[in-house]
Amino acid sequence: MTLDPASSAAQLDALILDVLRHRVGKDELAAKPHDWFNATVLALRDRIIDRWIATTRRTYETKGKRVYYLSLEFLIGRLLRDALANMGLTRDMEKALREHGLDLTVLEDLEPDAALGNGGLGRLAACFMESLATLDIPAYGYGIRYVNGMFRQRIVDGWQVERPETWLAHGNPWEFDRRESAYRVGFGGEVVETAEGVEWKPAEQIEASAVDTPVVGWRGARVNTLRLWTATALEPIKLDAFNAGDHFGALADEVRADALVRVLYPADSSPAGQELRLRQEYFFSSASIQDIVRRHVQFHGDVRTLPDQAAIQLNDTHPSVAVAELMRLLVDQHGLEFGEAWDVTRRTIAYTNHTLLPEALESWPLPLFERMLPRHMQIIYAINSRVLREARKAGMSDQQIAAISLIDENGERRVRMANLAFVGAHSVNGVAALHTELMKSTVFADLHALYPARINNKTNGVTPRRWLQQCNPGLTGVIRDAIGPAFLDDAEQLTALNALAGDAALGERIAEVKRANKVALARHLKDLTGVRLDPDALFDVQIKRIHEYKRQLLNLVETVALYDQIRSHPERDWVPRVKIFGGKAAPSYHNAKLIIKLANDIARRVNSDPSVGGLLKVVFVPNYNVSLAERIIPAADLSEQISTAGMEASGTGNMKFALNGALTIGTLDGANVEIKDRVGDDNIFIFGLTAEEVEQRRAEGYQPADIIAGSRELQQALSAIASGVFSPDDPDRYRDLIGGIHDHDWFLIAADFDSYAAAQRRVDAYWTDQAAWRRSAIHNIANVGWFSSDRTIGEYARDIWGVK
């Protein structure tokens, strides 16, 4: 990238000082670190704005087609380092700040993680936004500007405690209020007939207003927009009620509006929680669709050409109501006939499915949906009648038609949001090859039979800028020295490393970088948790959302078995291991929170036991987020990707670890299958049942008790946990958790345990041959460049969106 003369360190220095004085309001001598941080961001932002305006103007002038990515989550993490690197200004900024005795890395650590996501779904959306800009594709991301978002996780006596994530407490220097982009979003009320047709008269209306954040592509190719919605009541305070002494009642409307943008994924176990979740999803979907249609009409005129100028991608089922909302706008506000509106809608919208778990395929009680969105319920019924007539005409059975219906008639009648998204889209994609094939044969089998050309695969990817270049500059430098800089622009060029996998000198340099990363992580975790870690031990890492299907419990049970074996056989040459866990459990997910407690109970017992010496350490990292991932992943030796086969759609952590030279231990699930195909069988540790075998076991009447009785290590580990060895203060704490494995074991922990334990011992043996381990690490780095989000977005653009 050829930088403007104005991008020199001296020019940046002058700009930072000007911003510090005139926009932050501080003299250089009085400025505190947070003042310098804000001045640095605002100075960089000024440079980004110029590129932002230029690329947006280019889109207007060329009338380019835009992509609109609707997602309830955007786990963007910290932006300063990312933006500096993509703008090519990191070194100049470091030099400018050094003139004032400041360290850029220290300022970067002052930036809070934006609390806009929970896990892989939100991080994928963030990677996609960066790749859209990198590939010079005009795009908007649409979501909610959560005030507190996903909670801040504290660990108190081993238990997860949720606290508000106050990331906006001191403002956000990256964002811009867009007062002109404000829309009314209605709820409830009634639908009445008028001379022109029908009119929805909501009982309640809330104003959605836009807040924009620039998203910078690699080498500043384009700056796109992340548009997040905030909510305000049309009448924030009822003064007559307030003056009459009803202070709470006077603010009720504003409280209801604020609740929409306060917390990500409010618990939906109660009717009130379900209503809030549905209100959130409609709120951001409606505002986004209104914005998209308004922009199209403003610049292109005829709403009928929307599919030619706009591609709307629904990121999972959360924005599915956008299908009905777009229909409402086209029919009620723009006067299209229903059939014509349905054609426009389906050609504009595409849907990404991220899960095969039935509970994650959202559905809403029909009375709730109809009360909240009466006009949309009418539209959904009308869509459903068309779809069911198609199914009947195609000769489908009553059972198939019932499965296809947008209304679930089994028990409580519910609106099936995944079915709505499927029928309202021209493309429905899975996110890994295995996941896509399972979609066709499981959750969408009958819809696939009716629309056999609609499902396609787009294997997920991660941005190599953040997940290699920025989080692991040492490794990036070694790779550049070895194969040149081409991989910086095209991650698939990393394959050139394959020819050097046997180069001992290169292996040693990569190992030196890995050890330095482990030393840095050990220091950080010592400050965070008080646990001392040996950087020469094998760092075995499982960091992800805590969920039973991801099987942190399998890892913990094997950890207990290993602990017993080390104590029972001290004469063996055990490989020193550090077991690192991290992740958040949904506040109402009892078993997931219990698993966190178990991890901490095991850690307390193991870490204080002198009989295992330095051979085993266990640490649970609190408040896992993007910034912690950027520290942990470059330091990992072993990546735990051990979900029950057939239950993980893709995973992206598996890609990030492999890109940073960690070897994977995992099942043939999600993208693990494709990673294995890329890196080779000798460079990955695969264990356990396949997805087909899992289904077969369940169908045959799986009996975990028989397996437990035949596995001494498993039996002893489960007994120790269930009997209170790790919970002497409450011996029955884990009785039901372990009892679930004995009784039904839906996630097949017992079935896969022996295979998993054997794979871990293969890991031990391989680790002792460091030359072989390094070769495998290099092969992993070399062959996972294909899992770049640039490749994924390129496939979306070509196959789904029709953009260049």
Protein architecture, described:
This protein is an alpha/beta fold. Among the domains are: 316-463 and 788-804, Rossmann fold (3-Layer(aba) Sandwich), CATH 3.40.50.2000; 464-692 and 703-719 and 749-787, 3-Layer(aba) Sandwich (Rossmann fold), CATH 3.40.50.2000. The protein contains 34 helices and 22 strands. The strands form 5 sheets. The chain has a 9-stranded mixed beta sheet with strand order 5-8-9-2-1-10-11-15-16, with helices on both faces. Strands 19-18-17-20-21-22 form a 6-stranded parallel beta sheet, with helices on both faces. A 3-stranded antiparallel beta sheet has the order 12-14-13. Strand 17, helix 23 (552-568) and strand 18 (577-582) form a beta-alpha-beta unit. Helix 22 (504-529) packs across helix 33. It is globular. It starts with 8 loop residues before the first helix and ends with a helix. The mean pLDDT is 96.
